[in-house]
Fold:
Amino acid sequence: MAAVSPVAAALSPLEVSGGRSVGLPRPASSTALVGGSSGSFVFRPSVGGVVPRGGWAGVGRGGWNDFSCRPSAAHPRPVVLVHGTLGNGVDNWLGLAPYLMARGYCVFSFTYGGLLGLPVVGGVGSIDASARQLGVYVDRVLAATGARKVDIVGHSQGGMMSRVYLKFYGGRRKVHTLVGLAPNNHGTDLHGLITLLDSAPGVRRVLHGLVPAVTEQESGSPLLRRLNAGGDTVPGVRYTVIATRYDEMITPHRSEFLHGSDVHNVVLQDLCPLDVSGHGSLGLIDRLAFHETANALDPAHATPTTCAY
Structure:
């Protein structure tokens, strides 16, 4: 498959579950969208992910990952966006990052768990290692912005991996709110396809060696048993899970839900029966999911999410 620049991908129609296509608004410039003047991106371990070739020159002109951004009194916590399996810190957030920036948030994202150093393919390495990378990035955001805590929005694996950070790597002291967009909180059976690996243990071993995050997301995996032992949540963190009935990756979709004292679980179709977003489009382009995310980040000013969005 030919490589497509993040900006070009954002401007193309995006197909969502159900066969309809949705186009994102055309930005004034690529800089306004991702903070770089070029569609070419490189991996920089020193900053924890993918950056435009030549650095973040021009990021102050409107892109996210602006480390000079200072949180406002209205939105005192920076928002860290955490992509899912096979994603990266740019392409996953061409919709949600500008949406949150327009509402006054300092927004940051990075690429974790890379494969063979490829800058556009993340979320495939060991989930514990990825959680530690998230911790390093959160510390950098806190140091740069002067904030005491961040809020995290994670899509798919990103929502679950962030919980690993909260529970095992000190994140509970640094995170106020975690919003999971179709998060793989309790594993998936991929409509039963995962069980096919049981008949080919050699394939499973090879797969785990190459892309451990994939097998670690199976229902009942050692990582998920460890993560969910003793309860789904940690004290002091507020949780929201946003799911879709049409999720073709995390099955059944209600396995995404968390159980705890400060948890809000929502299914998009309960808010708007006309919403047909699947697993990917929920995080990439779904305006209802974006609005529910904004509500979760600022519940004091939440407004009803309806089909009008």
